[in-house]
Amino acid sequence: MSTISSVTISSLAYKKLVLHTAKYPTARVLGLLLADTASSSTLSITDAIPLSHHWTSLAPMAEVALSLATSYASTKNLTVVGLYEAPEMVSDRSTSQQANKLAEKIASLAGREAVLLLVDNASILSTTQPLSAYTVVAGGKGEAKPKALPASAVSLQNAASSLESAVRKDAAWEKIVDFDA
């Protein structure tokens, strides 16, 4: 049974996610999601850490990055609660095996289910919901089966009005750095 019933994403976390995706439009990108886990049913994502865009299937790099991100999050009284994935193909609407495994690892470290946000690259700057949310539980052998949350369970908190300008005109994505860079 899922304990996460809804996910709220702050404008900061969403902006980082979009800029990371914009910087590497032809690559699959992964990033970590941070939250204050005070509430058990509503997960409020407050920040995101860009993880990778090139070596997305290298487990050792992901382990090191996860360890560093966990240390950083603890200094901010936050927890790594999941990850986001933007597929390299615009038409791809399913999570990758690597993202599923990493989400399962995050769930085991956090001691609760992890959230996995899948970015719909085709609608990331449109008015339609560009994110699908899944929950992943710990305990498998890297064969986690993400469970979809309803589309209405995902909300963007104070979506940044300057986001489109930052992507299309200001090239703000150039300031985004992930562990591959």
From TrEMBL:
Domain MPN positions: 7-140
Positions in coiled-coil regions: none
Alphabetical list of Pfam families matching this protein: UPF0172 (PF03665)
Gene3D superfamilies, per database record: Cytidine Deaminase, domain 2 (3.40.140.10)
One CC-aspect GO term: EMC complex
Family membership noted in the UniProt record: Belongs to the EMC8/EMC9 family.
Protein name, entry field: MPN domain-containing protein
Organism name: Kalmanozyma brasiliensis (strain GHG001) (Yeast)
